[in-house]
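Good morning C.,

I know you're traveling, so I'll keep this short. The sequence:
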Amino acid sequence: MQNAAATSWKIAEEDRLRADLYGFLSALLAAPPDKELLARTALLEGDETPLGRSIAALAKLAGQCGPDAAEREFNALFIGLGRGELLPYASYYMTGFLNEKPLALLRKDMAGLGISRAANVFEPEDNIASLMEIMAGLIAGRFGDPASLARQKEFFNRHIAPWAPHFFTDLEGAKGSVLFAPVGAAGRHFMEIEREAFRLTGG
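The tokens, ready to paste straight into the viewer:
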């Protein structure tokens, strides 16, 4: 995702951590994790929260997984012969079909936010990696000013909350998930935290 007017802004530490986690999930789900991403993931430390335990489990597995194995797992889950075990698109989860109304609504909202798909990206914009990337960018101010909490909440509730928790649950339990099982768990717990935090903001 890109925006020619993107600017660097200072944001609160809590928001920086949120943006980092959204960005981390996007990186893991956009393409097979390479050696560098696996090495950085292996250095992560969790805590005793459900999210922290998922991160710790992911770090342990990343330290044991080479890039070839990660690529095989990624391809089995998301690409496969014809299609992978999972279809990580909002349109599919919300309507049962690809390239449906959720994608059109997302494109309209992206245009309103001044966000466009990068020229070298051919995936529909409503895939989970792109939506995690957009949320990271809204929080961190990569598309201009950092988005207000109300704008973040609107985008989350419209394009992520209706289906991402279901996707992450499916990823956690997918037959082909090993490295990606704790990715699914981490995503599921993070979506729960975000949904509750936005609910408490009211409005």
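Safe travels,
E.
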